[in-house]
Amino acid sequence: MLERLTRYRRDLHRIPELDLDLPETTAYIRSVLANLPCEVFSPEGHAVCAYFDCGKPETVAFRSDMDALPICEAVDSDFKSKHPGKMHACGHDGHMAMALGLAEVVAGLKSKLTKNVLIVFQPAEETTGGARLICESGVFKDKNATAIYGFHLWPDLPMGVVASLPGPLLAQSNEITVDFTGKSTHIAKSEDGADALLAMARFVVEADQMLSHLKSEVDPASTLKFGRVTAGTVRNAIAAAGHLEGSLRVFSSEAFNYAWDHLHEIADRISKDLSVGIRITKSDGYPPVINDRNLFEDAEKRIPELQKLPKPLLIAEDFAFYQKTLPGLFMLLGTGTGIPLHSDRFNFDERVLDRGVEIYTKLLPLE
């Protein structure tokens, strides 16, 4: 099977596409699935689903993402991206190859399965959260899906090692934007102005102090950091405006509400002290990936080598939307390269694809 998996991965690596616009990718996936005893359909017009009807009342689902990134590939190979400025730099080509391999395994085991199998090839994981669209389509209710599984190739784990956690695994992500409105004056008459830059500096410091309380009182794995700031026009004038961009990562609604409420309290206090207007906005972002504990315990029995990570990770993944619809388990599969995700040099040893199909096969409901 490794030869086929490698071919699938390399073929897909050559044709990276972005967001919801994946015509070559979906055509390729459909061409492979066309040879298998499954119903192939798109529940919301962008995804590709393979449904293996085994005549059972319940269905188990597996998910692969399909979209690439707007990155120029820096590695020369005979399967380098044919689309300039686009690259599979997050392993989704590998995810698709493993899911196609799983489809072939399911086809061979169809008579022995105790549940139907639904394999979901999903768009827009990197952008708008394609998982949400699939959940809203009602496909899981229509097929009576009772669980969903997913993988992500992971450079920081040794090759072939599979790891996860029961409960919180990956963070909720909200982009935080703060705008400050003051009044500019020459610094010689600073008392006549309202210093947006000073307000911004105080906000960053007090937000960091708030994070310490959030960690100690509610969510020790959370973080809030600001990475971009703009303010002012010249060095000898009070800044009339400031703009601050950061990211909040938490693992529960309680932690989010704590941070959101306290940020507004900080803003109100500074606004009154300095006569500066402060407006805080956020992106909706992705919810946290919270693994179903029963599915994790079952996976430990089926995959004795499944490891527990030392703590949850502060990255985000739209697999979380599935887990709001049905019980789900998300796992990390080590590539051992140490090459960061989203790097223009991202690559992996394709032998790990065989390992992924092996793990998926262990999760199939067999007689």
TrEMBL record:
Protein name: N-acetyldiaminopimelate deacetylase
Domain Peptidase M20 dimerisation: 176-269
Coiled coil: none
A UniProt-annotated Pfam family: M20_dimer
Gene Ontology MF terms in the entry: hydrolase activity; metal ion binding
Cofactor note: The Mn(2+) ion enhances activity.
Alphabetized InterPro entries for the sequence: Amidohydrolase, Bact_exopeptidase_dim_dom, Peptidase_M20, Peptidase_M20_dimer
Binding annotation for Mn(2+): 90, 92, 126, 152, 342
UniProt keyword terms in alphabetical order: Hydrolase, Manganese, Metal-binding
Needed co-factor(s): Mn(2+)
